[in-house]
Amino acid sequence: MGTARSVALDALTACEKQGAWSDGYLKRAIKAAELDGRDAALATRLCFGVLQNRMLLDFHLSRLCATRLEKLEAPVRNVLRLGAYQLLCLDRVPDHAAVSEAVSLARRRAKNPRAAGLVNGVLRSLARQRDALPSPPDLATRYSHPQWLVDEFTRRLGGEEAEALLAADNGEPPTCAQVNTLKTTAEALAAALQGRGVEVQPHPWLPDCLLLRHTGSLEGLEEFQQGHFYIQDAAARLAVLAAGPRPGWKVLDACAAPGGKSFAAAVAMGDRGEVVSCDIHPHKEKLIRAGAARLGLTCIRTEVLDGKAYKEEFLNSFDLVIADVPCSGLGIIRKKPDIRYKDPGPLENLPRVQRAILDNTARYVKPGGVLLYATCTLLERENEDVVRGFLDRHADFTLEEFQVPGPFAGTDMGMLTCWPHRHGTDGFFFAKLRRNAL
């Protein structure tokens, strides 16, 4: 049996030493430790909070710790970060509790017997000096984003708006629930969830979408088990709305996991037609199949398929092909805060992979059909540049304007970027491409 703080510490250390992803590790660790809803929420907040503020926390801790942070054992370094986060960023945890819990963790997890004393001294000094701490001189440290990423955002948005984006990346987004309108209505679902103590708000501009807080275990909610809703960010559903699937269409979701766009297309089609939902990983195919069954969507069939590998039977077969390609994920830092710390080197190869998937899946679009290209990143080289290059190579495709709900401009260009700080969504890009009719 673990505690919220020990689970958070394990997750932070695994992220740092093993390259684990915090969200996946936390989910498994919370289950293994049998944490209740309250402690599970605390473990998640502590882990995500440290990751969102790690460079800032290290800035302050380095001034007070006689030993360089990188020289400390990983568990001790992360115990200090956990304690500092509670002291500097949370107002519901008393100072003495934050310090004593950190000292206790250090005593249990550190190999060096003097580590507990170091943690006690550093955190007590931090608490005493809290109101006089200097502000970091640079945006990278202040918002805990690596300098290369700050430079990318500043180049595109300018300094003031880039700072707003960095701040939004460190926010805590609500859970976005899409209503399965084949089974219920937004009003009925909202009332049912509120009756279970869930905080529910209608989305400000996307119909049949609810923003949830204090859900506890989503999987434990009866409405979830009965398939009355699925989890998907507003931006991803907006992309499917732009594509405009209709009843009777044949749709290919080429890189489908975890299945949200397949589900959105099937619901928009009234579960009439066919959605072929593919992923390269067999275990993810099983997840999509289970999600479709829970939602009662019978028009979805799944298949294991590499989006880069040509399949003769698919040639010229689909009214709509969705290519939500592998990307750097830099639009979902709010939900996966550790993405920012990953090595940027391997990202340079992503446009090549994206081009290969787009070129391949374009062959599956019927003449007159639609190809939807999408990513959850905000880098032009993975978004607009890939689309423009595709159009240069494929004269039979053109960008097509679309109308979507919400505070968006520029949809007449056929491409749209959703921004966390502007729209309250994930960072997300999509383009609607129409294949010329014969």
Structure in words:
Strands 5, 6, 7, 8, 9, 10, 11 and 12 form an eight-stranded mixed β-sheet that branches. Strands 2-3-1-4 form a four-stranded antiparallel β-sheet, with helices on both faces. By secondary structure, it is α/β, with parallel strands linked by helices. It starts with a helix and ends with a strand. Helix 4 crosses helix 5 and helix 5 packs antiparallel against helix 6. 45% of the residues are buried. The model has no long low-confidence stretch (mean pLDDT 95). Strand 5 (250-253), helix 14 (260-268) and strand 6 (274-279) form a beta-alpha-beta unit. It folds into three domains: 4-134, N-utilizing Substance Protein B Homolog, Chain A (Orthogonal Bundle); 175-231, Alpha-Beta Plaits, CATH 3.30.70; 234-435, Rossmann fold (3-Layer(aba) Sandwich), CATH 3.40.50. It has 18 helices and twelve strands. It has helices at residues 4-18, 22-33, 37-52, 54-64, 74-89, 95-109, 115-129, 139-143, 147-157, 159-169, 186-195, 222-225, 234-243, 260-268, 282-295, 350-362, 384-393, 420-423; strands at 175-179, 199-202, 209-213, 229-231, 250-253, 274-279, 300-304, 318-324, 365-375, 397-399, 415-418, 428-435.
